[in-house]
DNA sequence: GTATATGCAAAGCATTTGCATTAAA
DNA sequence: TTTAATGCAAATGCTTTGCATATAC
């Protein structure tokens, strides 16, 4: 899907790579589900039990500041982190019951333009579509 | 724009109307900006200084549960509340600098369908488009 | 009159920060 | 060796809750 790994991209930016940061980067990758800081922490601990939650937050915030991942907060509850930003253009599929968030390939969705008359003086540089619905798990549970 | 007021709709649902709740409902109406609980509290206090923040939260949560307003959390920081949900179909214009959120009429944006093949087993019942950019105020400040 | 909303203050999460210690480069 | 990252624990900010009192219906 993507040619380079998150870790490689970060290293290229001159990022200092520690075992903790490696564990965080690896925890985020691969999945098309977006994890909370706490879930990242749990996963990172499976590899490096000494990773602290504070370090997870610090690391995630840096990655966001670099634009390598995005913080998304569509449902109540804690923030989630999207590692596929800027590399694979995509939109989101949100379960309104459990808050789970999946990616959708951008090619599945038409490009959108907002007419200048409706821009309220904004400049627009990204468009993001969220499909709200119910995920298979919650459908089964209902 | 809408034929009935938020307060009228709530009363029709058999809601018990108190001065505090009236103040919260009025604070939310009319605007195309989405307020935080704290901002709603400040506005409600201008009319009824004894309204407590706890009551504002309780009231907003009830309105959300009834589907009369929506909680939106696109940017870091506190939740914001969208009173125009379900009545005036619309999308969002988000300032990535200051987090301000405006409404855009749905007619300005084409309807979108997600192909079944890309639905990952979800049912989809709403589509929401967010245009990310920079608002006039932040442009001026830059 | 009765059920329900209120304010207050305390509790509960999510997230950030200060600081002494440790480790990457 | 230098500069920056770590863990811990305390602090902060947003939101919810418990409970005694007040009030809409």
Written overview of the protein:
The structure is a homodimer. The first copy, chain A, is α+β, with helices and mostly antiparallel strands and about 140 residues long. Chain A folds into two domains: about 5-80, Arc Repressor Mutant, subunit A (Orthogonal Bundle); about 90-140, Dna Ligase, domain 1 (2-Layer Sandwich). Helix content of chain A is about 35%, strand content about 20%. In chain A, the strands form two sheets. The first copy, chain A, has a three-stranded antiparallel beta sheet. Chain A has a three-stranded mixed beta sheet with strand order 5-4-6. In chain A, strand 2 (about 70) and strand 3 (about 80) form a beta hairpin. In chain A, helix 2 (about 20-30) crosses helix 3 (about 35-45) and helix 3 packs across helix 4. Chain A is globular and about 50 Å long. Chain A starts with 5 loop residues before the first helix and ends with a helix. The mean pLDDT of chain A is about 85. Strand 6 (about 125-135) of chain A pairs antiparallel with strand 6 (about 125-135) of chain B.
Q: CATH homologous superfamily of the largest domain in chain A - what is it?
A: Winged helix-like DNA-binding domain superfamily/Winged helix DNA-binding domain
Count helical runs of chain A: 5
Shape assignment of chain A: globular
Strand content of chain A is 15-25%
Work out the oligomeric state of the chains in this entry: homodimer
User: Which sequence of strands runs across the widest sheet of chain A?
Assistant: 1-3-2
Give average pLDDT of chain A, whole number. 86
Q: Supply the CATH architecture of the largest domain in chain A.
A: Orthogonal Bundle
CATH fold-level topology of the largest domain in chain A: Arc Repressor Mutant, subunit A
Helix amount of chain A: 25-40%
Sheet of most strands of chain A: 3 strands, antiparallel
Structural class of chain A: alpha+beta
Please give the most extensive interface between any two protein chains, plus how many residues each contributes.
Answer: A-B, 38 and 38 residues
Radius of gyration of chain A: 17 Å
What is the terminal-to-terminal distance of chain A?
Answer: 34 Å
Series of secondary-structure elements of chain A, N-terminal to C-terminal? HHEHHEEEEEH
- For the record, the CATH class of the largest domain in chain A is Mainly Alpha
Low-confidence stretches of chain A: none
Please count the beta strands of chain A (DSSP E, at least 2 residues each): 6
What is the total number of structural domains of chain A?
Answer: 2
């Amino acid at each position: 899907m993507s040619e380079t790994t998150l870790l490689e991209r970060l290293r290229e930016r001159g990022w200092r790579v520690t075992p903790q940061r490696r564990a965080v980067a690896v925890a985020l990758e691969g999945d098309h589900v977006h994890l909370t800081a706490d879930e990242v922490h749990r996963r990172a601990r499976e590899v490096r039990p000494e990773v602290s939650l504070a370090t997870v937050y610090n690391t995630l915030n840096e990655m966001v500041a670099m634009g390598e991942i995005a913080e998304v907060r569509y449902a109540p509850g804690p923030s989630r982190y999207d590692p596929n930003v800027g590399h694979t253009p995509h939109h989101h599929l949100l379960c309104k019951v459990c808050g789970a968030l999946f990616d959708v390939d951008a090619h599945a969705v038409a490009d959108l333009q907002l007419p200048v008359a409706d821009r309220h003086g904004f400049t627009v540089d990204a468009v993001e579509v969220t499909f709200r619905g119910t995920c298979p798990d919650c459908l089964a549970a209902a």
